[in-house]
Amino acid sequence: MSVAASVLVPPLRDGDRLTSDEFMRRWEAMPDLKFAELIDGVVCMPAPVSLRHSNFHAPLTWWLTTYCLGTSPALRVNPDASWLMGERDTPQPDIALRILPGYGGQSREEGEYAAGAPELIVEVASSSRNRDTGPKARLYERMGVREYIVGLVKKEQVSWKELIDGKFQAIKPDSDGIIRSRFFPGLWLDPAAL
Hints:
Number of domains: 1
Strand content: 25-35%
CATH topology: tt1808, chain A
Distance between the termini: 67 Å
CATH class: Alpha Beta
Largest sheet: 6 strands, mixed
CATH architecture: Alpha-Beta Complex
Order of helices and strands: HEEHEEEEEEHHEEEEE
Strand order of the largest sheet: 3-5-8-9-10-11
Number of helices: 4
Radius of gyration: 18 Å
């Protein structure tokens, strides 16, 4: 009679160096875990989320959802979804706006997860500011995210960039203080109102 040994999947730990496949294997073995990401092969675990973070996150989600619902059935807003972006990267951006693949979008779906890159990503940067403006920004450039918005919580500012020749370049507000998307027609933001 043979006895099969049960194999325990190690938990995800902040700072672990993993491949995307191993990250996803461990993630799926931890059904109570709601947030973790793999950036450049390094596991990043969640920090406590402040009210200031939430106060930025909620209106940005509402803004993009309103745009999506009023514009086209080809668009989807995906808050807090995990994205399969390569052998060493599985980020979980705060918000993603994407064009569905059937309408010419650049992302796809792999099982229950989004894969590739959405057209627009929003990160709300408080305790994660260095990661959001450093390694994650570089990852999103490499992957071809067309526009990248970072809500800088402590500064109460918004940075909106577009991908030009493989690098993010700032989109400056117009003379009326409004930032206008170069990729999504009619997607405007008044940072002062936010």
